[in-house]
Amino acid sequence: MRSLTLHLKVLITLLVTVGILVTAYQIFILGIPVTEDETDDLWNIDAKVEFQASGREPVKVQMFVPPLNQDYVSLNESFISNNYGVSINRVDGNRKVTWSARRASGNQTLYYRLVLTKRYSGEQPKAKGPIYRDSIPVEGAEKIAAEALLAPIRQHSADVETFISETIKRVNNSGDDNVKLLLGGDASTQNKAKVIELLLSIAHVPMERVHTIRLAADIQQTPELWLRSFNGENWLYFNPDSGEQGLPQDRLVWWTGDGQLVGIEGGKKALVSFTLNNSEMNAIRLAKLTDENTDVDFLEYSLYGLPLQTQQTYQIMIMIPIGVLVILILRNLGGLQTLGTFTPVLIALAFRETQLGFGIMLFTIITALGLSLRSYLEHLKLQMLPRLSVVLTFVVVLIAVISLFSHKLGLERGLSVALFPMVILTMTIERLSITWEERGASHAFKVAVGTLFAATLAHLLMTVPELTYFIFTFPAVLLIMVGFMLAMGRYRGYRLTELFRFKAFLKD
């Protein structure tokens, strides 16, 4: 007996642990939303290219577009143009779109549109980059100024990260004569980046320009310049103006390097303007979209990977254990008397079609009439099988009559009574009549009311949309429920109704 108890405890612990771990993995690692109403941000980015075509020669417009292997997932990328050919090429690690046309004249407008989301971006590839670079040639006064700046930088730095930070800090010190000489009177961000790159190259520290877009709605913006360097494991990002380290979460890398955002042949006055707006999408729908566009394939191995029609069936089936758990608690802890365990659950399923109020009324009417017929057949001294056959036929006829009258009276809800399980009603009538004969009318009435109450409560829980979503999305929760059911199987304590039943003993 002791070994059996230990075995049961181990089994319960194993089931509950596995259920909790799998559910936690889905929520915290895979990022599956806990509620169906949860939404995620979508960013719509429009880049509008305007220029004036010469009209005398072919037009070729090239523009950098973002890489697709970032922390954001591209849901849609489109190139909107009129009578232009479109192609995508890779140049020095960047993506470049090329619009081309044989003839074009006057003002021209091209659009690039990108839809992004942050969630389900998947595992990022391991970062790679250069860890050494040759020095940029410099002579004369510029060389002396650069060496004078590098001496204190080396003294106040301990690694690549602090070396770059100290360099940016020195270059932004406008009162330093050496800095003034290297800047040559031009304190623009681009020129500061050029001086920073010069100083870092002398120390053989690689540096790369990064042009970013800020994900913020309803503001006019141009690409913002950042600097980055590879330390052997990760990319380190720096703001060339403030020295701020670490690329903010709302920045999207558009392209890297020294190239201009847009280049044009056969035209002039090219201008690029960015428009961003933010919207929201249901998290599960978003997961399905990203599952098609990324390597994140957790939906393929979940119930969401089934055909839609099959999903609808499983959304009903997977809630049956919830109904069974309700009956288990009501019977083993509450002491409620019902017609078995599964009869109330099956009646609760029928209530999904008839709705609760109409279903209770139909159940009461059909059961009452069926009991009357069963009582009459008892006087004919029929065997059980013929008696059940007659009752079943009577139930079918009664259901058809109710459906017909409901239709004539305009009560379309009454048509759903045809889906009420006839066999369940027949067996319910039979078992209630036997209970009536064996233990009296009051006990049979008590069992009927208990069955109806349990079916009603089970139906209310089984049709809660939030609970249905949670169980369907995280089916490992059923393992936790099985562990609870196993624990309930060894319960030998008092039931709630027995506390009232033996109340007299407590007084003594």
- Number of DSSP-assigned strands: 12
Low-confidence stretches: none
The overall pLDDT average reads: 81
Quaternary state reads single chain
Q: Helicity level, as a percent range?
A: 40-55%
**Coarse morphology:** elongated
Provide the β-strand percentage band. 15-25%
Rg (CA only): 37 Å
Give, in spatial order, the strands making up the sheet with the most strands: 3-6-1-12
Order of helices and strands: HEEEEEEHHHHEEEEEEHHHHHHHHHHHH
What would you say this structure looks like, in words?
With 508 residues, the chain is an alpha+beta fold. The protein contains 17 helices and twelve strands. The strands form three sheets. It has a four-stranded antiparallel beta sheet, with helices on one face. A four-stranded antiparallel beta sheet has the order 4-5-2-11, with no helix packed on it. Helix 2 (140-155) packs across helix 3, helix 2 packs across helix 4 and helix 8 (320-332) runs parallel beside helix 15 (477-488). The longest helix has 28 residues, at 2-29. Residues 261-505 form the 7 transmembrane helices usually fused to an inactive transglutaminase domain. Residues 25-184 form the Inactive transglutaminase fused to 7 transmembrane helices domain.
